[in-house]
Write a structure and sequence with these properties.
With 300 residues, the chain is of the alpha/beta class. Helix content is 45%, strand content 14%. Residues 8-187 form the 3-hydroxyacyl-CoA dehydrogenase NAD binding domain.
Length: 300
């Protein structure tokens, strides 16, 4: 059971999600370590978190002293066995591949605190399969955060077949402590939100491919017609179409034909147009900002 915020949290993977999760825990009072084998990725993560703090101060939502204290609680490391030593919670946010996730957890387990909670931020993969590599699978569950983490309040807590009630209670305590609302989902491919989002984004890409409307107009339709904060193509660019493609392939294999990836997504990934992180997806980006009127046109 989680006792105090003096417990150490280790987050593995410094992409958009890992960066946001590390910020959330450090800003909420936890000693947090963000781990990535890529030094350049850690530099980008540190810069991104510093900007979140700076923006909070600028908007009057964060006291400078609190921001400085939160930054002091957050450290960065390229060595997982060192970073994870004594941690009470491990949150892995690495690429959506089972073998990679299992390898990360296996490397960290021997040095975690006794009975530590092991959480995966997977948006579609099987928590039960991930937990199968752990000697105590009852302490493994999914903690699926949403991007951008510092703005999105929801966390899906995903029960694998062996996840204990105690693990769920502890995970809910962590969510409460960092100001998130949690829901509990019994393991199913795509959970609740990823399953719906995958269908929406895939259909939007089919519409773009078929010439139904331009990228800008498809996104505007969802923002203005359904009050979504982002359109499905904008969201795909933010998430990364490589990640979206991996999720769609998994859902297609497990849930059937309606999740077959749109050929345009496959083509974009083959071209390296993953979205914001590569500077080009459905839209183009310069210095992290979208270039106006740069969306793929209808009927491509």
């Amino acid at each position: 059971m989680m006792s105090t915020k003096t417990e150490k949290v280790v987050v593995v993977g410094s992409g958009l999600m890992g960066t946001g999760i590390a910020h959330a825990f450090s800003a909420s009072g936890f000693a947090t370590v963000l781990v990535d084998a890529n030094p350049e990725a850690l530099v980008r993560a540190e810069q991104a978190i510093s900007k979140i703090f700076a923006d909070g101060i600028k908007l009057g939502k964060l006291d400078p002293a609190d921001a400085a204290a939160a930054a002091a609680r957050l450290t960065f490391s390229g060595e997982l066995p060192v970073a994870a030593r004594g941690a009470a919670l491990l949150v892995e946010t690495v690429t959506e591949k089972l073998d990679v996730k299992k390898a990360v957890i296996a490397e960290a387990l021997p040095v975690l605190a006794p009975g530590a909670l092991v959480a995966t931020n997977t948006s579609a993969l099987s928590v039960t399969e991930i937990a199968a590599s752990v000697p105590s699978p009852e302490r493994v569950l999914g903690m699926h955060f949403f991007n951008p983490v510092h703005k999105m309040k929801l966390v899906e807590l995903v029960r694998g077949i062996a996840t204990s009630d105690e693990a769920v209670v502890t995970a809910r305590q962590y969510c409460d402590a960092i100001g998130k609302t949690s829901i509990v989902v019994n393991e199913s491919p795509g959970l609740t939100t990823s399953r719906m989002s995958a269908l929406l984004g895939n259909e939007a890409m089919y519409m773009l491919q078929e010439g139904t409307a331009s990228a800008e107009d498809i996104d505007t339709a969802l923002r203005m017609g359904f009050n979504h904060p982002m359109g499905p193509l904008e969201l795909g660019d933010m998430t990364g179409w490589d990640t979206r493609l991996n999720v769609l392939k998994y859902l297609h294999a497990t849930l059937g034909e309606k999740f077959r990836p749109c050929p345009l997504i496959i083509k974009m990934v083959a071209a390296g147009r993953y979205g914001r992180k590569t500077g080009h997806g459905v839209y183009k980006y310069e210095d992290g900002q979208r270039v106006p009127n740069s969306g793929l046109k209808a009927g491509i």
